[in-house]
Each structure stands twice: as C-alpha cells, then as structure tokens.
C-alpha cells in the first residue's frame, strides 16, 4: 500500500471513529453458517436463552451473529447478518424479525417480507436434546 492510500484509509477510520462508528465485516469465520463446521451449544436454562423455552420467545445471541426464535415449540436459527447491507446487531421481533438499520423484515422462516433486503436470512441448523441446543 502506498503512502497516499494509507493516509486515505487512516483518515476514513479516524472520521468514522469520531462518530462512534466502526468498519465491520459482514461475516465471521467463527459464526455457525451453512457450510461452516463450527458448532455452538446453548443451554436453554441460562439467560438470555431461557426465553426460547416459550413459543414466541426470541434471542439475538449476545456474542455470535445468530437470531433464534421459538415458533410453536420448534426453535429455528438464522444468521443475524442482514442480507441488505450486512447489519448484524440492531434487531427486534414482533411476529417477524425487523432489521433496525434499514427496515427490512423477515418472517420466522427467514424469508423477506419487506425490503430493501431481497434475499432471505441464512438458516443455521438446530438440534435439540432436552434443554440443550446445538447450532451449526
């Protein structure tokens, strides 16, 4: 990288930091996604995951980019990386997932119900053994 390119990138990072913003990758090698072999185990008796024991309960995983929801007793998991522009931490749920960055909505199967996103959320496999979930 030449000096000019370095100064441009350093300036951009400085400006973003002054507004409290960061550059965030759209994916991570350690998040369980289709095709990734890493596994995540969740105990439904611990907070915040205990809300998943009840139908309608949902969680944005606190350390991984994963949305979880209980629909009629079946727990589903999806990547929380929005397919519009990659936002991953600003989510709410009221019968469907709402990405707070640009307003995209997704149903409990991960399908887009309202854009600007045009692709569904990536599904993550879930195996349940009692109160233990294995994702990935």
From TrEMBL:
Annotated signal sequence range: none
Keywords: 2Fe-2S, Disulfide bond, Iron, Iron-sulfur, Metal-binding
Tree of life domain: Bacteria
Residue ranges annotated for the Rieske domain, each copy included: 44-135
InterPro entries noted in UniProt: Rieske_2Fe-2S (IPR017941), Rieske_2Fe-2S_sf (IPR036922), Rieske_Fe-S_prot (IPR014349), Rieske_Fe-S_prot_C (IPR005805)
Cofactor: [2Fe-2S] cluster
Gene3D superfamilies: Rieske [2Fe-2S] iron-sulphur domain (2.102.10.10)
Name of the molecule in the record: Ubiquinol-cytochrome c reductase iron-sulfur subunit
Organism: Marinoscillum luteum
Upper lineage: Bacteria, Pseudomonadati, Bacteroidota, Cytophagia, Cytophagales
